[in-house]
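**User:**
Make up any protein.

**Assistant:**
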Amino acid sequence: MATFTLADPVPSPYEDAERIWKACHGWGTDEKAIIDVLAHRNAAQRNQIRLAFEEQHHENLIKRLESELSGDFERAVYRWIFEPLEREALMANIALKKKKKLNYQVIIEIACVNSPKELLAVKDAYQARYKHSLEEDVAAHSIGDFRQLLVSLVSTYRYDGEEIDMGLAHSEAKTIQEAIVEDNFNHSEIIRILSTRSKAQLRATFNHYKDEYGVSITKALAANPTNEFAHALRTAIRCIVSPYKYFVKVLRGAVSSKNTDEDALTRMVVMHAEKDLKLIKEMFYERTNVTLEDAVGKETSGDYRTFLLALIGGN
């Protein structure tokens, strides 16, 4: 369910395209007009606006907006304007092309939160847009243990049912515990279990692990907080077991007063505003006693803040 307010009545895509064109051709860019249009249109309507803009003005709307806007606001609008599947493909590519190092959290989110069919659709969209497979590009931009983990996660097509094998849960919980005790987080068996078992089977394994060893598997993996590979494993487990708790955790970190993470904040808002942000907002408030709107309003500014708050919606 979308959190943003749709225009009522909705202008024709040609009217919206014309308004955006005028916003880009006055004395300076009219950012408010751009927000008024794009933050209040769903994916299908935004796509129609893109087509109408190109038909009327023989110009690509996305490239025009890239040239008119800047900073975090431009990046948020750029990510928002795409349809959901194309956006996930785009986010994966951006994560892989990070200047310093790939953002493995984004790849893990896409691989582990989506259902098998959803992940396959994202990979199809990625191939259509970039003429490479997602697996190919993940392999090209990662090395060593991270390559093995990430390629395995994006390559999988898990069983999506609820059938579980408790004997298997017991044996694989023991396998994971032995690897953790040996501080061998990159053990091939851990990667195999995480990348091939169904989500229902993994939840059973992780529940058995906690019952048997008295600690959650994520806490066991956190025993060595400087081990980045262990952090990647925890991210995958959280995305599989409780994605909404994970999203709230990312948002809490993103709006930390110590250091706002605009990339993570933008990703969470634009990826979920048309889907399940309402539920994430409710959980955020339950855990922080602060509304997401207030947290974002406090830690952002200018057109970027206005745009995000329009997508997040009212209390």
